[in-house]
Amino acid sequence: RAAAVPAALLGSALLRRPAALGVAAARCAPARDSHGPPRQGHGSSKAASLHWTGERAVSVLLLGLLPAAYLCPGPAVDYSLAAALTLHGHWGLGQVITDYVHGDVPVKVARTGLYVLSALTFAGLCHFNYQDVGICKAVAMLWSL
C-alpha cells in the first residue's frame, strides 16, 4: 500500500520512517463510501460532477449577488438572492443529511423535511420580496441601525 504513494509527495523524513509512511499513505488514500450506492440522484460520476459544478456556480453567483445587492438593489436582485440562497442552503443541508443521517427511513424523512423546509424558505423569501421591502432593502435597514 505504501508503494502507491509517490515519493515526491512525501518528505524525506517520512521515507526514513516506515510507520509514518503507512499513516501518510492512509491519509492520501481516496475515501471510501461504505454506505451503499451514490445518493442524491447521482447515478454516475458525470451526474455527480455536474452537481459539484452547479454547487460551485451557485456559490460564485452568490459572491456576485452580494455586491450587486448593495450597488443596485431591486426586485431582480431580491428574487435572484431568494433563489440562490435557498438552493445553496438546500444543497448544504442535504450534505449534512448525507453525512449524519443513516438508515432508509430516517434518510427519507430527513430528505422530505429538507424539501419542505426549502420550499417554505423560498416561498417565504418571495413573499417577503413581494409584500414587504425585499431582501436588499431589509439588509440595508439592518445595517443602518
UniProtKB/TrEMBL annotation:
<keyword id="KW-0999">Mitochondrion inner membrane</keyword>
<protein>
    <recommendedName>
        <fullName>Succinate dehydrogenase [ubiquinone] cytochrome b small subunit</fullName>
    </recommendedName>
</protein>
<keyword id="KW-0349">Heme</keyword>
<keyword id="KW-0249">Electron transport</keyword>
<feature type="signal peptide">
    <location>
        <begin position="1"/>
        <end position="20"/>
    </location>
</feature>
<dbReference type="InterPro" id="IPR034804">
    <property type="entry name" value="SQR/QFR_C/D"/>
</dbReference>
<dbReference type="GO" id="GO:0006099">
    <property type="term" value="P:tricarboxylic acid cycle"/>
</dbReference>
<keyword id="KW-0496">Mitochondrion</keyword>
<dbReference type="GO" id="GO:0046872">
    <property type="term" value="F:metal ion binding"/>
</dbReference>
<feature type="binding site">
    <location>
        <position position="100"/>
    </location>
    <ligand>
        <name>a ubiquinone</name>
    </ligand>
</feature>
<keyword id="KW-1133">Transmembrane helix</keyword>
<comment type="pathway">
    <text>Carbohydrate metabolism; tricarboxylic acid cycle.</text>
</comment>
<keyword id="KW-0816">Tricarboxylic acid cycle</keyword>
<comment type="function">
    <text>Membrane-anchoring subunit of succinate dehydrogenase (SDH) that is involved in complex II of the mitochondrial electron transport chain and is responsible for transferring electrons from succinate to ubiquinone (coenzyme Q). SDH also oxidizes malate to the non-canonical enol form of oxaloacetate, enol-oxaloacetate. Enol-oxaloacetate, which is a potent inhibitor of the succinate dehydrogenase activity, is further isomerized into keto-oxaloacetate.</text>
</comment>
<dbReference type="GO" id="GO:0006121">
    <property type="term" value="P:mitochondrial electron transport, succinate to ubiquinone"/>
</dbReference>
<dbReference type="GO" id="GO:0048039">
    <property type="term" value="F:ubiquinone binding"/>
</dbReference>
<feature type="binding site" description="axial binding residue">
    <location>
        <position position="88"/>
    </location>
    <ligand>
        <name>heme b</name>
    </ligand>
</feature>
<keyword id="KW-0472">Membrane</keyword>
<keyword id="KW-0479">Metal-binding</keyword>
<dbReference type="GO" id="GO:0005743">
    <property type="term" value="C:mitochondrial inner membrane"/>
</dbReference>
<comment type="subunit">
    <text>Component of complex II composed of four subunits: the flavoprotein (FP) SDHA, iron-sulfur protein (IP) SDHB, and a cytochrome b560 composed of SDHC and SDHD.</text>
</comment>
<keyword id="KW-0732">Signal</keyword>
<dbReference type="InterPro" id="IPR007992">
    <property type="entry name" value="CybS"/>
</dbReference>
<keyword id="KW-0812">Transmembrane</keyword>
<keyword id="KW-0813">Transport</keyword>
<dbReference type="Pfam" id="PF05328">
    <property type="entry name" value="CybS"/>
</dbReference>
<keyword id="KW-0809">Transit peptide</keyword>
<dbReference type="GO" id="GO:0020037">
    <property type="term" value="F:heme binding"/>
</dbReference>
<keyword id="KW-0408">Iron</keyword>
<comment type="similarity">
    <text>Belongs to the CybS family.</text>
</comment>
